[in-house]
């Protein structure tokens, strides 16, 4: 469904969900994937799926897990977070977790139109300016290193293995190990044109230049790292190996 944005709603108020669902159903550019009244259930499902969700409409005041905390935990699994709340005082904190918008209930049709217009403009700008990471002059990626506002640069060529765990990706390199708050699908999208990397498992992407040996269904990599090959990716991986086997001429 090209041009249609899939979204979810997470709000412990049934009436608020119903009201927003009606607005979404009336908008031709949106489709509601699912709604949740339990933020913990929502978190579990979001982290468990491979696909990145386009938009999440989150309430802030929810029992067990606030919308602010939930937004932090689903970074890399949702492209755009829009807070929908009855309280004005959380607006500053909302933007600290990279929220796109902060809407005060009750949400109106024009509120929704403005948000979707903003998202479409951002997506258009991103598509016009997007460049595959492996092809840019700066052969590096940047991650937050735990200090607010501070980014750490990692040489792509030094990366041995990406390993996903829930909503985080472990990056193992020749010089150190790092953790990024992103899903494996984000890594795949960024490296899709970089032929140095191949996905060999649901949770693992390897640097082909870092392979030491392959034994059965295990790939042995630099720095003694290992990664399993799952059946889903086995054929493509061994086709790559077969093409590079050194053979005598007939």
From TrEMBL:
Record domain HTH LytTR-type: where: 147-214
GO MF annotation list: DNA binding; phosphorelay response regulator activity
Organism superkingdom: Bacteria
SMART domains reported in the protein's UniProt record: LytTR, REC
InterPro entries: CheY-like_superfamily (IPR011006), LytR-like (IPR046947), LytTR_DNA-bd_dom (IPR007492), Sig_transdc_resp-reg_receiver (IPR001789)
Xref: SUPFAM superfamilies: CheY-like
Domain Response regulatory stretches: 6-120
Keywords: DNA-binding, Phosphoprotein
Residue numbers carrying 4-aspartylphosphate: 59
UniProt keyword Phosphoprotein, yes or no: yes
Identification of the protein by name: DNA-binding response regulator
Lineage: Bacteria, Pseudomonadati, Bacteroidota, Sphingobacteriia, Sphingobacteriales
